[in-house]
Design brief:
heterodimer, A: 194 residues, mainly beta, Lipocalin, eleven-stranded antiparallel beta sheet, elongated, B: 193 residues, mainly alpha, Fumarate Reductase Cytochrome B subunit, two-stranded antiparallel ribbon, 4 helices, binds protoporphyrin IX containing FE
């Protein structure tokens, strides 16, 4: 086996120690881990809870536990990546009455303020844009930090009619309820100190 | 069915309970079959979702009545078949009835399992959520959908045979086999014709 130059081994070990060390210096969680993150929802059809999820989304995150109020968060969701529970449902919700995915391929959330609520909870307020319509939204989020990784969890209820999702024959809430339960988990790692 | 706990009914008729369950379940199965057949090919719409739910609620209700009916059947001995019936006809009749009981259980059960595998839970009358016996699994869901269809078509074929046999007994053999399940066919003298 080829031996590595001593200095390289040492500096690698040192770099590892620095990134693993507790946050004596600023640590910023800003690398979204798509594989560990999830964005799911539960809609009610004839009072039957039906689970779905978005498989593709991007997030620009910047969260420093020492300065939570300065946190930044943006989320972009690819509407075509929806799994609404079945192939029929996926085809249906891409249509004009639902998400009109061709015209509005991306839904977006931009945080405008982050307030610490004490403990590991934050109140995040921002603007949610779905199907070209932008509305204010605010939701509590729980932050769980484990070494180099932080996970941001939350759930909220959106009313589909507020965004014009499910028009025409679907506008009646008797079959598909207005309230849609959203659940998200964004997992981010900290990039090497800048 | 082999258990013979009680003596046969003296007037050679089914009990009121047996007759009631027979016709209630028969009508409900015909209705659910027609609805299932019609709804499956509809384009997706709120109406389709409503039909699916109604179909599932009806199917689960039928299942419960079938359980009651099996309970009745195990505790009672049905009236004797006419003495003139040849042995092979008795065997075919017994086999048909066993198959019908099996299918009355298997058809709703396959529908329930299919719904679970497809990820659409059954919430009875929109109120009582039934447990999902299977986790969501698309391939299994498609398989159970095919099975539900196959069992239904099998059941339809056997129901037609059952119906044909009942009519043959009444109009050709002129015995009381149909009348004891449909008492208004009996004339007041107790004679069946
Ligand atoms: C005795 C009771 C039942 C009868 C006679 C019945 C009959 C049928 C029939 C004839 C079809 C159409 C099959 C086809 O041509 O594709 C069907 C479809 C269906 N049944 Fe049932 N069914 C019963 C019980 C149930 C139950 C208990 C459930 C669920 C809890 C259920 C769920 C379904 C579903 C979801 C479909 C649609 C499958 C598709 O999307 O193609 N059924 N049923």
């Amino acid at each position: 086996m080829k031996s590595w130059p001593h200095s390289l081994v040492l500096s690698c070990a040192f770099a590892t120690l620095v990134t693993l060390a507790p946050t004596a210096h600023a640590i910023e969680f800003n690398q979204l881990q798509l594989g560990k993150s999830s964005l799911s929802f539960v809609s009610k059809q004839m009072n039957v809870p039906v689970e779905g999820q978005f498989k593709s989304f991007r997030s620009r995150l910047a969260y420093d536990p020492a300065k939570p109020a300065a946190a930044k968060a943006e989320l972009e969701i690819d509407m075509a990546s929806i799994d609404a529970g079945s192939k029929d449902a996926n085809d249906e919700v891409a249509g004009k009455a639902w998400f009109n995915t061709k015209a509005f391929p991306v839904a977006k959330f931009v945080a405008t303020s982050v307030k610490p609520l004490g403990g590991n909870r934050l109140e995040v307020a921002g603007k949610m844009t779905i199907k070209g319509k932008t509305l204010d939204l605010s939701t509590p989020i729980t932050v769980t930090q484990q070494g180099n990784t932080a996970s941001f969890d939350g759930s909220l209820v959106l009313k589909r009619a507020d965004y014009g999702i499910g028009d025409g024959i679907w506008a009646d809430f008797g079959t598909v309820a207005n309230e849609v339960q959203i659940k998200f988990r964004l997992v981010a790692t900290a990039a090497a100190a800048k | 069915m082999s258990s013979r706990p009680a003596a046969p009914n003296p007037d050679n008729s089914y009990t009121f309970t047996a007759i009631g369950l027979h016709w209630l379940i028969a009508l409900a199965i015909i209705g659910s079959f027609a609805l299932g057949f019609y709804m499956a090919d509809l384009p997706i719409s709120p109406q389709k979702l409503r039909f699916y739910s109604w179909h599932k609620w009806a199917g689960v209700t039928i299942f419960l009545f079938v359980v009651l009916r099996l309970g009745w059947r195990l505790a009672h001995r049905p009236p004797e078949l006419p003495a003139a019936m040849p042995a092979w006809q008795r065997s075919v009749a017994a086999a048909t009835h066993v198959l019908l009981y099996l299918l009355m259980v298997a058809v709703p059960l396959s529908g329930w399992l299919m719904s679970s595998a497809k990820g659409f839970q059954t919430v009875w009358f929109g109120v009582l959520p039934l447990p999902d016996l299977l986790a969501k699994n698309e391939a299994l869901g498609d398989l159970l959908q095919a099975l539900h269809r196959l069992l239904n078509y099998g059941m339809a074929a056997i129901v037609f045979a059952h119906l044909g046999a009942a009519l043959k007994h009444h109009f050709i053999d002129r015995d009381d086999v149909l009348a004891r399940m449909l008492p208004f066919l009996r004339n007041p003298s107790g004679d069946t014709r």
